[in-house]
Amino acid sequence: MKYLLLVHHNENMFKSMPEGTRKDMLTESIQLCHQLNANHQYVHASPLQPEATGTIVRVRDGKPMVTDGPFMETKEQLAGYFLVDAKDREEAIRIAQRVPGARIGTVEVRPVREINGLPGE
User: Fold this and answer.
1) What confidence tens digit (pLDDT) does each residue in 63-74 have?
2) Rounded Cα gap, residues 82 and 34, in angstroms
3) CB–CB of 95/29 below 8 Å?
4) For 2-111, which CATH superfamily applies?
5) Residue 6 neighbours by CB under 8 Å, 6+ apart
6) Model confidence over 63-121: pLDDT tens digits?
7) pTM greater than 0.70 (yes/no)
8) CA nearest neighbour of 32 among 120, 107, 115
9) How many CB atoms lie within 10 A of CB 44?
10) Which of 6, 34, 64, 76 keeps 20 to 30 A from 47, CA to CA?
């Protein structure tokens, strides 16, 4: 079953960390991806650009509303994700515990709904 591991942390705190620490966390994340790939658990992963670079699109009563970021007054922002293939929730949680971002923020573990008819199936 596929699980989306949503990595949240405080962007300002992350930016204030020494550059070497940030680079080490990225290197560790890449190594985790290679370990997951060797175990046939890796699907995809990527950090996200800062929240301020995002755009929110809503359609209400047929009218689109587009809002540039930042969006919410929150302590943590969505920083990246890992899409993994795990046998169950417990295994997905064990993977989430290895995500470097879990040490400075949170990792939300969400099962992905499987639906038929998508491209590539």
Assistant:
1) 999 988 766 667
2) 12
3) no
4) Dimeric alpha+beta barrel (3.30.70.1060)
5) 78, 81, 107, 108, 110
6) 999 988 766 667 889 999 999 999 999 999 999 999 999 999 999 999 999 999 989 87
7) yes
8) 107
9) 11
10) 64
